[in-house]
Amino acid sequence: MSVEAVAGAAQPANGAAVAARPARVDSVCCGLMLAGVALYTAVFSVLCCRQFDRLAHSGFDLSIFSQAGWLISHGETPFSTIRGTHLLADHFSAILYLLAPLCWIWNSPKVLLVAQTAALGLGAVPVYGLALKVVRSAPIALLFAISYLLNPSVQGYSVKEFHPDSFVTPLLLGAFYFLHASRWRGFFACLALAALTKETVGLVIVPLGVYAAFFDRRKGALAILLGLVALVVALGTMRHFSGGKSSPYTADLYGQYGHTPAEVVWAVATRPGSLVRAAASENGRTYLFELAEPLAYFPLLAPEAAAVSIPSVAANLLGRRPSFREADMWYSAPITPVVFAAAIIGFARCYRWRIKVVTWMLLANLCAATLLATVNGPLAAWHRRGMYALTARQASDARLVLAHIPPDASVSAQTVLLPSLSERKQAYVFPNPFYRSCWGLTVDALTQQEGEGFAEWPAGKYERAMSSATVELVVLGPQPYMPIPQHIYDALLAALLECPRYGIVEIRGEYMLLQRGADRSGGLRILERASGLAVHTHADIINAYWLSRNRAANTSIPTEGGTVE
Q: Are 505 and 523 in contact (CB under 8 A)?
């Protein structure tokens, strides 16, 4: 046999070996990406559950969605007594109907926190798939997936309670992947599910349809139509469940531009200078920097893809609330997937130019930006300043008090306690239902969330409100309550403690539990033991309450009282 024949016979084997190496690299990178998803889900699920157990969530939003999910899973109308309105009147959070069956598996608000974390973690899969599709390099696709999992905005969505908005991030990432893979069924399925997360998602779907039209005109036009229908259906549904009233959010957040969505859009379109000024302001520049900097400004390399986020970014820049311009708040959840998709597409564009120096510089910048984002992310921040709002003793005292509350009792409690009490038909943020505070779907209720618009009642009305209320249990503690003037809160607190229809049944540390119809004289004896002060007059009751709180705050030994029968 000749040498040439041997060499010729060896060529297929060598070619197969060369082909096997990239295949092994792809498999390893894909495995590492999936391991990263699993690690992210595990770490942040444990973190969120520990936050819940330590009462570290502010509580208001988590309680609203937890109560609504629990009601849906039990076949009840999702009217949130915490928010004072139907779930679909406040926001178009229809995706909660799909998540509610999870409550059958795990009857706890933690199931929503874990589901949110898992969904956000799975967003790395379409990031990896999109990068692999357009860059055609598994290691680079893995780097983008890691950048996503370490992104401070994504991690922020995981740890800041629960919001249906967060699910739009992985869904829109999936839409971008299916679009570039020309898998149109998956593309439209992701858009349809994304439209169920919030009424504003149409602001992303419509421009995404315009972008999709460059791939397929008919499919792009259909996506634009889907976005417009999503906006109309969402706003119409909210109007229906609010009794025919328009959403107060437009007037509250964009009142300077108009009181309806159409008025706001027209005002901004005819006066674009307002948007330019908002973007050029210090807060605006910081916000845009926080969106693009963790990806080393790669989105600027694909302006046609980044433009999909313009309506959503404009809405956040023009909104009155400063939290709209914080990149790790859920208001930016529809923007994050666009930023990542644009970054991947922009890098692929440079990668195809095969300018090695530029490519390596871009990759080095991405690595540096990813590391910097990690240092500034939620995990690193908590290690620096401490994770929990309450001490372990405070959380333990609160849990012992909450354990005495029956699962079907109506209850009023401060916001951080409410997530643990939300799975019931009637749960209120104190001082509701005695005094309407941030309750109901009105501009006044939204204004009250910022500490304004509270009415001071005449003498005697506070006492009548306590006497006529039917809520069974009230929990008081040291946590911050919904913003309310101190003198009004003190008047409500005094009226509650002096009300003959409510008696103290438990005091542990800084927490007090009152029950309607309980033995009042027995409750006063519990208060005397906790405070060390004899109670004879109404003034003594108030003084004893604050004294018991102060004593508990300065000692590690909780004071015990009676129990709820």
A: yes
CA dist 117 → 59, 113, 148, 167 (Å): 17, 6, 13, 9
Q: Give 496's contacts (C-beta < 8 A, 6+ positions apart).
A: 434, 466, 474, 502, 514
pTM of the shown model: 0.89
Q: How far is CA 115 from CA 62, 106, 110, 118, in A?
A: 13, 11, 8, 5
- Evaluated on CA atoms 390, 393, 396, 400, the torsion sign reads negative
Local confidence pLDDT in tens for the 565 residues of the chain: 333 333 344 344 444 543 455 778 889 999 999 999 999 999 999 989 988 988 888 888 999 999 999 999 999 999 999 999 999 999 999 999 999 999 999 989 999 999 999 999 999 999 999 999 999 989 999 989 998 998 989 999 998 899 999 999 999 999 999 999 999 999 999 999 999 999 999 999 999 999 999 999 999 999 999 999 999 999 999 999 998 888 888 888 898 898 888 888 888 888 888 999 999 999 999 999 989 888 888 899 999 999 999 999 999 999 988 999 999 899 999 999 999 999 999 988 887 766 566 667 777 777 776 776 667 677 766 554 455 667 778 888 889 999 999 999 999 998 889 999 999 999 999 999 999 988 998 888 888 888 888 889 998 899 999 988 889 999 988 765 667 888 888 888 889 988 999 999 999 888 999 999 999 889 889 988 888 888 888 888 888 888 888 887 776 443 333 333 3
Per the CB < 8 A criterion, the answer to whether 514 and 520 are in contact is no
Contact 313, 285 (CB under 8 A): no
**Computed from CA positions of residues 111, 114, 117, 122, in that sequence, does the dihedral angle turn out positive or negative?**
negative
DSSP 245: P
Output the six-digit token pair for 451.
């500490």
Q: Enter the DSSP assignment of 203.
A: H
How far is Cα 565 from Cα 563, in angstroms, rounded to an integer?
A: 6
3-class secondary structure, 516? strand
Q: Computed over its alpha carbons, how large is the radius of gyration of the chain?
A: 28
Question: Residues in the chain, how many?
Answer: 565
* CA 85 – CA 478 distance, rounded (Å): 27
